[in-house]
Amino acid sequence: MRCLHGGRSSTSPRRLRRLFGRAESATGIALVNAMHISASVFINDDESGLHADFEKWLEGLAPEKPHSRYAHNRGEDNADAHLKRTIMGREVVVAVTDGRLDFGPWNRFSTASSTGSAANGCS
Asked: Domain 3-117: which topology?
């Protein structure tokens, strides 16, 4: 993966209440979807070593080069990005209780793009 960004969710309890209705104690599920075809979203530890391990592991499974190894790369050069996105996933579902995302103590949303463009959230 050409970039991997981790971090806390930017979804605030106030925003979740707007999404789930105007209830004081919003409870339900939230679906978070990476909208770009080669971007991923996942929940795991927000730890730089783990992110580096993901990048190394994914590059071993679907190396970017040589581009000629992939049938998809006839006119494109991002087949590896599509494969990596399939492995990491395009969406997550999270329980919401009282307007808060129900994460474990170390879990955070992370996003990844295998194409490295600013349009995919990578810089």
From this structure: Jelly Rolls (2.60.120)
